[in-house]
Write a structure and sequence with these properties.
The chain has 548 residues and is α+β, with helices and mostly antiparallel strands. Helices cover 24% and strands 33% of the residues. The chain has helices spanning 56-79, 89-100, 105-115, 118-130, 152-162, 174-187, 282-285, 291-300, 324-328, 456-466, 471-475, 505-517, and strands spanning 6-19, 33-38, 41-46, 85-87, 136-145, 165-169, 203-216, 227-232, 238-248, 251-254, 258-264, 270-277, 302-303, 308-313, 315-322, 349-362, 366-367, 374-377, 385-387, 392-398, 404-410, 426-427, 442-443, 480-488, 494-501, 524-525, 531-543. Strands 1, 5, 6, 7, 15, 16 and 17 form a seven-stranded mixed beta sheet that branches. The protein has a seven-stranded antiparallel beta sheet with strand order 4-21-20-12-11-10-13. Helix 2 packs antiparallel against helix 3 and helix 2 crosses helix 4 (118-130). The longest helix has 24 residues, at 56-79.
């Protein structure tokens, strides 16, 4: 770096928690704003939040932000083959809009190409954030190196338009690092700490945007229906991930290339869209996605006429993205000595760091993300099956404006192990297990999981064709999902059949009988290609016919 140049640091923090809805006792609609609590998950909700009215200029700001979202997603997907990641496009666009207030000339034009005109983006983001429901919290911080001059007009813009807290610090001291990290830790309730390793005497300003989203699902998942299920990554590896399940009617779309489902959060303007490719690998599929395709999917969503059979992994992803290289391709002068940030300071400067740290947790309660799902009927019924057992994309988006708050891809990593405490675990020792060598380990997952001859559809057909719906359960209108577990041995045989979750004695017995009838599987194999004994989870759903 040539002498006389100073660095602008942009740090973005996004914490997103996703959870399902409240129980009936927790719901009270007589208050416009309230704190709600469900099984330890607390969230503030509002009933009267109204969307911002969009004119053409504001619509352009959202379009720009969403276009940037897919550009960054495509680049990151290629950088992280077969890996999960998550980031907040809105936070990136928001930070760029703040930075634009200090730019001039070619640098300003580059920023405006991504955000829209600076005066418009300033107006839009200040008003848009003001319309957020309590499910979204956003705050901003600017730390200024007091040893360099910063223009007062820039400070006024950041404080007035973006409500930022401003501190003047000596960046040559450890105290500056401590103060910046203390603000981050306080805003994030301890979720983030030590983001800044050490300030530098040549750094000019730190601009920090913090975003938090926390909401409950309108349609909750039952924790008792969460079970380990095989998830196959695009590199061919398979692992057991905790998978949530429910039947419900929701916004759904399907075409030749993908399935999509949009799930609503309670008292929030945001929804989660999950896009599941049918045949393509996720890294190839994402290259087809853009803002226009995203809007097409959103506008094509329809409420299903029958319940959707949804299987969705419960996951948690932490991601640290260095966006400098990605953004440099789109705004090159901002990151080198050709930068013009004359409206920020008389000291010549450029952007040296642009990072985003993001955490997302999807669970049964909302957002804080083995075996084959088999749906069995006595008579045929059309129920869409959304089986997210391979990599998918997800988006948290504003239902009214379609602005993307968060985007990411899930590839089977970064999940939490399901706690089996409290589950009914009935062991049927009389099942065939004569060829299991007790001297060898039985694995919960392996590189290549066992599979039924002919694949998932063949297994589904086997269950349907051989099921005998118990007459007593039929008479009493009893239905439900029995979660079965068994070992697929290295010879492919099924043994050690047991129930991970029981429903009714008649349905339970029929599920056990079906598992005992299963023919040999293709056995599981480890990374060395060796055959191994592996636990396999098979949910068997008993669904009463519509005319019963």
């Amino acid at each position: 770096m040539k002498s006389g140049f100073n660095k602008i640091i942009l740090i973005l923090l996004a914490v997103l928690f996703f959870s399902c809805s409240l129980n009936s006792k927790s719901r009270e609609n007589n208050e416009s704003n309230k704190i709600v609590n469900y099984d330890g998950f607390q969230s503030q909700v509002a009933n009267d939040n109204k969307p911002l009215t969009l004119n053409d200029e504001y619509r352009n700001c959202i379009d720009k932000s969403n276009e940037l979202a897919f550009t960054l997603m495509q680049k990151q997907s290629q950088n992280e083959l077969f890996k999960s990641f998550t980031f907040s496009p809105l936070s990136v666009s928001y930070a760029l809009a703040m930075t634009g207030n200090g730019a001039s000339g070619a640098t300003l034009k580059e920023i405006e190409a991504l955000t829209g005109p600076s005066t418009t983006s300033n107006s839009f983001y200040s008003k848009y954030v003001a319309h957020f429901s309590p499910s979204v919290i956003m705050s901003n911080y600017m730390a200024i190196n007091k040893n360099f001059p910063v223009n007062q007009d820039f400070i006024k813009s950041i404080k007035g338009l973006y409500n930022a807290q401003v501190s003047n610090l000596d960046f040559s001291t450890d105290e500056a690092t401590r103060r910046i990290n203390a603000w981050i830790k306080q805003q994030s309730n301890g979720e983030f700490s030590n983001i800044v390793k050490q300030t530098n005497a040549n750094e000019l300003v730190y601009l920090i945007n913090y975003l938090r989203f926390k909401a409950l699902w309108v349609n909750p998942f039952d924790k008792n229906n969460t079970y380990d299920k095989a998830f196959t990554n695009d590199n061919g590896t398979s692992t057991q991930v905790p998978t949530m399940f429910q039947y419900f009617r929701e916004l759904y779309y399907e075409d030749n290339s993908c399935q999509a489902i949009s799930m609503k959060y309670d008292n929030s303007e945001f929804r989660m869209l999950i896009v599941l490719p049918k045949d393509q690998k996720i890294n190839d599929f994402v290259t087809m996605m853009n803002a226009g395709e995203f809007n097409h999917i959103i506008s094509s969503l329809k409420v299903t006429s029958a319940d959707i059979d949804l299987n969705l992994p419960r996951f948690s992803t932490n991601c640290n993205l260095d966006l400098r290289e990605m953004l440099m391709a789109m705004m090159p002068t901002a990151f080198n000595e050709k930068a013009n940030f004359g409206r920020l300071s008389k000291a010549r400067s450029y952007i040296n760091r642009f990072t985003q740290d993001t955490k997302i947790t999807v669970n049964e309660y909302g957002t804080e993300a083995s075996g084959v799902t088999v749906q069995s009927f006595i008579v045929k019924a059309m129920h869409p099956q959304f089986n997210a057992n391979h990599p998918f994309l997800y988006f948290i988006y504003d239902e009214a404006t379609h602005a993307i708050l968060l985007a990411g891809q899930f590839c089977g990593d970064g999940f939490e192990v399901v706690n089996a405490d409290g589950r009914r675990n009935v062991d049927y020792s009389e099942a065939r297990d004569e060829d299991i060598d007790d001297g060898n380990k039985i694995f919960r997952s392996c590189s290549h999981m066992p599979h039924f001859p002919g694949g998932d559809q063949a297994l589904m057909s086997f269950i349907k064709n051989n099921m005998i719906y118990p007459q007593e359960a039929l008479k009493n209108k009893i239905e439900g999902r029995v979660i079965m577990q068994f070992v697929v041995t290295r010879t492919g045989r099924v043994g050690q059949v047991k129930m991970a979750r029981a429903v009714n004695k008649d349905l339970d017995k029929e599920a056990v009988r079906l598992c005992k009838m299963l023919p040999n599987f293709s056995p599981g194999r480890n990374a060395m290609g060796e055959k191994v004994d592996v636990w396999y989870t098979l949910p068997i759903t008993f669904k009463l016919p519509a005319n019963n």
